[in-house]
TrEMBL record:
Comp. bias intervals (Basic and acidic residues): 390-415
Compositionally biased spans, kind Basic residues: 416-425
The protein's required cofactors: Fe(2+); L-ascorbate
Ranges where the Fe2OG dioxygenase domain occurs: 206-307
Entry annotated with the keyword Cell inner membrane: no
Residue segments, region Disordered: 379-438
Keyword Repressor: no
Protein name in the entry: Fe2OG dioxygenase domain-containing protein
One example GO MF annotation: metal ion binding
Keywords: Iron, Jasmonic acid signaling pathway, Metal-binding, Oxidoreductase, Plant defense
Family classification: Belongs to the iron/ascorbate-dependent oxidoreductase family.
Amino acid sequence: MAEAAASGWPEPVVRVQALSESGAATIPERYVRPEAERPSSAAATVDTDGGVNIPVVDLSSPGSAATARAVAEACREWGFFQAVNHGVPQALLRRARGVWRGFFHQPMEVKQRYANSPATYEGYGSRLGVDKGARLDWGDYYFLHVRPPHLLSYDKWPYLPPDLRETTEEYSREVKGLCERLMAAMTTGLGVGEGRLQAAFGGEEGAGVCVRVNYYPRCPQPELTLGLSSHSDPGGMTVLLVDDRVKGLQVRRANAWVTVQPVCDAFIVNVGDQIQVLTNAVYRSVEHRVMVNAADERLSIALFYNPKSDLPVAPLPELVSPERPRLYMPMSFDEYRLYIRRNGPRGKSQVDRLAQINKDDKPAGGSDSPLAVASDLLRPSQPHRHHRKDVTDPDHPSAIHEPRRNTVVDKDPRPPHRLPRRRPRPVVPEPPPRYLRDPLVALFPF
């Protein structure tokens, strides 16, 4: 437990890869899902061998009206599509898969040098959330910030294999460019002004980019567990490079789970909650999950393209009308992430709850509004006696709530010389921001 306490985790972190390589015939109870959530449950599952699959969109002419229509239709109907002829070199895709597979095949002592903690979640990890005794997913991961520049920390990037850093940087740059082309196509498909979605993200320079490499080792009982629990992505857009040899991603369609059959060297693109909010639910984020495999390991690389974290996100005015009223109130991506961390992963219920709050027409700042929920998370649970006025960190409590000044003495009728002398208050060290103390802080660290 001393090791766990030193790292910030509530209990020792067990690497799923080590469990897989141990030769055990059963998985620990912590990884067994409730019966209704298992891949083997009675919930309908549609395999793509039967002809049902997410749409495939050809991006060879990204600026054409036909491409914009195809992207828009996929975002409206599925929230997912596979992008082919996307302009990212195939050789780079193979190099990216190769270097990260090489990292996960390094000796454990090499990987452990980059073990992450709940303070940042950057680095080598095996769990999301710090709730003691929580049910766990069958997978390890590596999480990195790429943009904005002040979050980029190369000391958290592995140095083995030798070309991993250079390859990951080039890969991130190329896929970021693809995201910008997709944003333009999505905007055209909406019929709004050019660049409107990108501007709502804070422009090309303001958008955030982070990468999560997922490694799903072989599992002796894949019918009992999941590689990644059911969720919709809280960010703007996700571009996923999957293992094109091993299936695993499932997308919810109506009341069934559709197993995606990957197209070789295609990207799987999905709408996140922030684009659902911006488009007033014209484009919808969709629940998805990951299965694991008894025979083969699986690796995927997710790049998350997010709005500038402190920029309010709300439905575009062009997409609001009497026939289609505004579904969501303004909320920054930072606030939304905190809202999710408080409530936990519940499929699509988070963004749908925000729509219901707005439908109830409660005043912004009312106790149940998302802004109030987020503000409560940002507000320290105990009053602080020492506030710095020069704090620029948005997570610092004093950057959000300035204490009220005591005005009672100003109304005291006694002469100034008879006012009671105040004792100086001791300087009390401030606790870490509330989001670092929340038991669900890392459910969605991107």
